[in-house]
Amino acid sequence: MASAYLSPRAVADRLGLAKPDSILAAIHAGELDAVDVSRPGAKRATWRIAQSALDKFLESRRAVPTPKFNRRTRRKPLTDVVEYF
Fold it and tell me: Model pTM?
């Protein structure tokens, strides 16, 4: 089964981004796996991103809901305290 490869522009369009700059930054940072398909010795890289790599990247960036904390309760007044003053 062949995996579909997407350009950084196509990934940016899918994610609703105006420019592919953040996609390219993720590639350069090593957060998003991509393949350079440019010719050897080319001045600019031509990146292609596998659909499976994009899915893995998006899963790693998924927001996790914050845990719900129990509210603190008011202390009950002590009944067995003897006051001397």
Answer: 0.69
